[in-house]
Amino acid sequence: MKKHLKKLQKKLSFSSRNSQRTSSPKSVAVLEDLEEPTEIVIVGAGIVGLVLALALNKQLGIKAEVYEQAQVFHDDVGAGMGMYPNGLRVIRDIDPELLQKIKAAGHPYGVRRWERHDGTEVAVAEERVLAGDDEDLMSIGIRRWRLQKVLFEAVEKAGIKIHFRKRLESIKQIDDHVNLKFEDGTDTSCKLLLASDGSSSRVRKIITNDASTLKYTGTQCLMGTSSLPREEQGLCLPSSPTSKCHGAFYPVAESEQCFQFHFPVPEEEAKASQGSWGALTEHVGHEECKTLANRLIEDGWDRKYLEPLYHMDKAIKIGFSTLDPPLETFVQGQVALVGDAAHPPVPYLGQGAQQGLEDAGTLALLLKHLCLVKNANGNHAIVMSKLQSALKLYDEMRVPRTQDMLTRSEAWGKHQQKRAENENFNRTKEKLIQRDVFFHETMPVLLPGVQHDYKEEVLKALPSLLPVAEEEK
Questions:
Q1: Contacts 24+ apart (CB under 8 A), 30-38
Q2: Which of 292, 316, 286 is nearest to 305 (CA)?
Q3: pLDDT digits (tens, 9 = 90+) for 38-89
Q4: Which residues have C-beta within 8 Å of that of residue 328, sequence separation ≥ 6?
Q5: What is the DSSP letter of 323?
Q6: Most buried pick, 341, 366, 397, 400, via CB within 10 A?
Q7: CB-based contacts of 99: which residues, under 8 Å, 6+ apart?
């Protein structure tokens, strides 16, 4: 690459001397194109992409260039999401103040409730158990757009550049850099490309030649938000054998909650309605929610579950899909997949976004310990000869971890649906839930997700860097 640059720059210099003219705007543009590649480019400025940019800035002192296909970020769009200890830990390691801003933008759960659709309580567990009594890491509900806004403001404050309206067209790896071309005709190059461009990742399709595709899981979800405070504290998980579905209700602000209803829908029927998946218009959303609420009344649901439907503010209808087959590697050359681009989730354990945040924290630490150097200008840069070692370790750590969490989440989703379809099974499982909460103070199925400490895992994987590891602790 450097030889190629010198050769072309010589050519330009010779041409300039012959013409006895200073560089024209055209020649200046050519010289700009010949600049060294950007250290790191991130494609996708969703939750994980923004956290990844902040983690790289914190751990490496490198400001990645972020490219996002959206024209701009909008307020008051989308539904809600949960943030759990393992994801919040990544945020705190970037900036404790940022963590507090995120917590202020959401609302704590406090407790987790398993209930029947008629409001009968099955079991209650305190969320502090999941956080190990660490107040900072207590689970919260938050509107997705509010979380993205806090992160975007942090990225702007850090001086990290986001290029909007950049839909990726193609990528090409050449020697020690990656070329990216966008649909608007612009292009760029980098030493390391990190793709956090979501479940339908364009980067993933290119580097895998579309070998793994999204496959519908058999479940559709109607979710939304309502400007009603929760009647009772916490995250509530009702199950209904009369409606053959299960749900989730949780606070996202003092006077706002998110609702989710999960229904089994056959693939053919799902395909017929796939065109309507996504954010619903106000009219369609109200109609869908009102129709569902009227049905649930007949099925004996408690009024507290129906009120959010009648007072819906935003509604979304989606079908859950995962990769078939799952990826065996998240890395190809100098390209790495992060978050949903690598492992599209199902939501039943609340670990989808958290796994992406773990990816971001893990990758930033590995690059810091294995690839970071100061160049001749005194700027932090990636040592290309060591990059593959870091990416290999990222792969070895994150592929099994994310696949394990996806498998657990899928199994729990099937368990919840079976409770809703089989009364005998449900009665038995209710007793088991009560027993588990009594002995463990929570459901053990949640612990492998929330108790994971990505930093500890990285330091265990770097035995040759024990002095550095001690400093990190």
A1: 34/5, 34/8, 34/9, 37/1, 37/177, 37/178, 37/189, 37/190, 37/191, 38/64, 38/65, 38/188, 38/189, 38/190, 38/191
A2: 292
A3: 999 999 999 999 999 999 999 999 999 999 999 999 999 999 999 999 999 9
A4: 399
A5: E
A6: 341
A7: 88, 91, 92, 136
